[in-house]
Design goal:
The protein is of the alpha+beta class. Strands 1, 2, 3, 4, 5, 6, 7, 8 and 9 form a 9-stranded mixed beta sheet that branches. This is DUF2199 domain-containing protein. InterPro entries: DUF2199. It comes from Amycolatopsis cynarae.
């Protein structure tokens, strides 16, 4: 009679519909506070807007590729961040050349997180991303950074993830 509603998570009390969320950063952090970057000669995006793009290059700033960073939550839920990875600009043509081809499934990307991921931060942490599903953006899979390695491998309590999700939304709202 006074139990938790069926549509409420027994672990955290939050509505179940708020679980298994995706948070997508609009811009890489190094580009975030630049004004007029879109109009700089040599700026390139894979699509019409930064929000829709999966790759971009900004002169004197760097080259960036989208990746998914899954945060495993207790109870089998996942909070997935759509982050940007900073990559070596000389790797971008190779990544671009594979992205829309059958060889995409074999793509491996080495880079650095280009977004701070709340509550851990981890900006500039090295990371390797792989394609787990040819219909998805590559997934962050491995890191030698101790914090990112822990984030990728461990299961987290729901309250950590929900606080992080709200912090990320605030960061992205400034974009």
């Amino acid at each position: 009679m006074y139990g938790i509603a069926a549509d409420t998570c027994p672990s955290c009390g939050q509505p179940l519909e708020s679980h298994d969320r995706h948070v997508r950063f609009t811009l890489p952090d190094p580009v975030l506070n630049l004004t007029g970057w879109e109009n700089e000669p040599g700026t390139w995006m894979s699509h019409g807007t930064a929000r829709d793009s999966v790759m971009m290059q900004v002169p004197d700033i760097g080259a960036f590729v989208r990746a998914l960073l899954p945060i495993h939550l207790a109870g089998g839920h996942t909070l997935t961040y759509g982050v940007w990875l900073a990559v070596d600009p000389s790797d971008l043509p190779h990544i671009f050349g594979m992205w829309w081809e059958p060889t995409y499934q074999d793509l491996r990307i080495s880079g650095w997180l280009a977004n701070p991921v709340p509550p851990w931060g981890m900006l500039a942490a090295p990371v390797d991303a792989i394609v787990r599903n040819p219909d998805h953006t590559p997934y962050c899979d491995h890191s030698d950074d101790p914090t990112l390695k822990q984030v990728l491998r461990e299961e987290w309590p729901h309250d950590v993830a929900f606080r992080a999700q709200h912090q990320a939304a605030k960061l992205d709202a400034g974009q």
